[in-house]
Amino acid sequence: MLQKGRDKRLVRFIAPADQRGIAFLSLPGDIQYLYLPAFKKVRRIASSVKNTSFAGTDFTYEDLEAVKWSSKWVAAIKSQNQETTVLDLTPKPGGTTGYSRQLVTVRNDNFYPVRIEIYGKSGTLSKVLVRGALKQVQDYWVSMDTTMEDLTKQHTTHMLVSDLTLDTGIGDDKFTERYLSQ
Amino acid sequence: MKAGTYTAAIALLVVMSPGAWTEGIALGGAASTDDRVSTQTDPQLTFQEYRLEISADAKPSDTTKFHGEAWIRSAGLSPSVTSANSLFSVGGVAPVSLDLREAYFELNGFIFDNVDLKIGRQRIAWGTADKLNPTDNVNALDLSDPWDFGRHLGSDGVQLSVYAGGIQVTGLAVAQFTPAVLPTGQWANALMPSAVQVPAGLTLGSVTTNVQLPGLSIADSVTAGLRVKGNLLGYDLSVSYLYGRQSLPVVDNVVITSPGLPVVNAAAQLVYPREHVFGADLAGSILGVGVWVEAAVFLPSKVTLTRDASALGMPVSQSTALDSTPYVKYVVGGDYTFPGNVYLNGQFVHGLFQEAGAGNLEDYFSVSLEWRLFDEKLKLTPLSFLFEVKDWSDIPDNYALLAAPSITIHPMDNAELVIGFHWIRATSSTVFGALSGQNEVFAHARYSF
Predict the structure, then answer these.
(1) pLDDT on residue A46
(2) Nearest to A99 by CA among A126, A79, A59
(3) Which of chain A's residues have a Cβ under 8 Å away from the Cβ of B6?
(4) A21-67 pLDDT tens trace
(5) pLDDT computed for residue B38 by the predictor
(6) B9/A5 touch (CB, cutoff 8 Å), yes or no
(7) Closest-CA distance of chain B to residue A105, Å
(8) Phi, psi (deg, nearest 5) at residue B229
(9) Does position B18 have pLDDT exceeding 70, yes or no?
């Protein structure tokens, strides 16, 4: 996975074998592309797809997009204690999201969102994201073990970071259809 | 101290698994089986393919890449044992074929940062429609599995792409012409109707064919094209031009002789006419629905069919096998993913891949409905069909329906099992009429490594 800033992200599968080469690009402006090596084609993802599972995981395409939260959500403080603050996020009018609400628990010491309760369109709690194994790398806090639990399916996906490189000066050319299909 | 998340202002590299990369080369592939059995009273094996796919990828630097893919295939079905000599070798009894699908290297940033060069055998897929792409004519069709619409061979060529200001300009050249791989059995009769017609009262004996491939000169054989791709108002679009040849043959000469009346033999010559193809496609979404439009204007060379039955005392006649009048094939389609992982894809197709010539294009609808369940371990495809309408004023006598409902199971990572049914109903007025009622069940297994 490559990321630049808050709004450019590229994910490429190298395993398992039957998903190898599939790549996903998230760009500013709610633009997402998918590269399917079997068809040698890059396809733009329609918004109806964004609420569906990404490659069989409990993450949706929307969960993997890279956007500034403030561009899609309105935040209000729901509760606060010495360690954490819980923010109540509701969608901005006109925004495209498959969720109706998110409760984000943020650590007060480093402002890291460690837990997100995600509500579906029906208003019921549907998924819980937990960012564990926090590690400080250079000047950044990073979760090395992110868990997404789908409460409806009672199924969990772990995203483990096994290798990490930061501040490499990565270029914008990595976040293009051209690079997606290479 | 900065607060970082995986949406923070950092570059993040996650390597999930080292995979099969060893010393810079990634080897992978798949083993698959495909068996089909007719549903008639005395069931017969109608198609069998056992295949080993091997792929190799190397990326020695950030700007160079090699990719190769080969298929080793066994048709399984009745090997072509024509003499006792064939019985004394494995190759004679159980033949396999080696098929180099792709083998190319790619130089990204060739001379200039914004230029990519790709040389070798490669699949060059043009168009935005789903599998049925009227602009996808660089590579020859591979109809060895007629149910695998959209499969193409690789072409030996060079492709140069220039990127500037959000625009991609691609030029390509393929020096040698490659004809399509034709289907066998009844599918050949359906998709490749015979131009050999014998006069009334006579019986057709043997038919021999002579394939007239283009000459070796570049002028005769080359395929060349240009494509400009960009984005406008939130839609991806491209325009293209291709100078090539039809990959499906046309009969331009038939000579009829007789070893003794009323039996006549025919010798037919097949040619691959030149054509210019101007294409355009567009893809985007409207209210969450993915939409695409793809069209191609074909300007074919005229092919005249000469029928020589002078050996029977009949005059030599000529007719038009392929008119030079321009014709347009197009596809309009859309897809939508409903909550619960239900995916619907529909297309209207004017002119299927094997159709050519003004006045010879038919209308089709293709629909696919998929429902993924249990974390995608199970996929139900209750609807997957192609519906042809030959005559809108009399549909009951002028239609064809090819359906392929299936169930796909992913019992574990990398494994896939598919069972399903091929069902064909078609009136004799359609190209699929000869296949009507030739239903079959199929089982497909695949393991990727």
Answers:
(1) 85
(2) A126
(3) 3, 142-143, 146
(4) 999 999 988 888 999 998 999 988 887 888 888 887 899 989 988 88
(5) 94
(6) yes
(7) 13
(8) -125, 140
(9) no
- Its ipTM equals 0.81
Specify the pTM.
0.87
Contact criterion met (CB below 8 Å) for B89 and B96: no
Paired tokens of A117: 């309760």
Query: Do residue B7 and residue A66 have CB atoms under 8 angstroms apart?
Result: yes
| Separate counts of helices (H) and strands (E) for chain A | 3, 12
The answer to whether B30 touches A138, Cβ cutoff 8 Å, is no
Please name the residues between 127 and 166 in chain A that touch chain B, using a CB distance below 8 Å.
Answer: 131, 136-137, 139-143, 146, 153, 155, 159-166
- Which three-class secondary structure state does DSSP give residue A147? strand
Distance of alpha carbon B202 from alpha carbon B266, whole angstroms: 12
Name chain B contacts of A167, Cβ cutoff 8 Å: 10-11
Sequential DSSP letters for B137-187: -SSPBB-SSTTSTT-B--EEEEEEEEEETTEEEEEEEE-S--PPBPP-HHH
Rounded to 5°, angle at Cα B316 from B315 and B322 = 145
pLDDT in tens, B303-322: 999 999 888 888 888 999 99
Which chain A residues are within 8 Å of B13, Cβ to Cβ? 1-2, 163-165, 168
pLDDT tens-digit readout, B63-115: 999 999 999 999 866 556 777 877 888 878 888 999 999 999 999 999 999 99
**A165 and B236: CB-CB below 8 Å?**
no
Residue numbers in A near B20 (CB within 8 A): 17
Pairwise CA distance, residues B45 & B36, whole Å: 6
Which distant-in-sequence residues (6+ apart) come within 8 Å of B230 by Cβ? Answer: B166, B167, B168, B236, B237, B238
Q: Give CA B56 to chain center in angstroms.
A: 23
Say yes or no: A115 contacts chain B, CB-CB below 8 A: no
Q: How confident is the model at residue A16 (pLDDT cuts 50, 70, 90)?
A: confident
Q: How much is the pLDDT for B88? A: 83
Q: Are B163 and A178 in contact (CB < 8 Å)?
A: yes
Full set of structural domains in chain A with CATH: 2-180 (2.50.20.10)
B208: tokens are: 């021999």
Q: Do A182 and B8 touch (CB under 8 A)?
A: no
Of the given ranges (B142-151, B184-193, B373-382), which has the lowest mean pLDDT?
A: B184-193
**Nearest chain B residue to A55, by CA:** B376
Q: Are B290 and A48 inside 8 Å of each other by CB?
A: yes
Average pLDDT, chain B: 89
Report d(CA A142, CA A135) in Å as an integer: 5
Stretch B198-204: mean pLDDT, rounded? 78
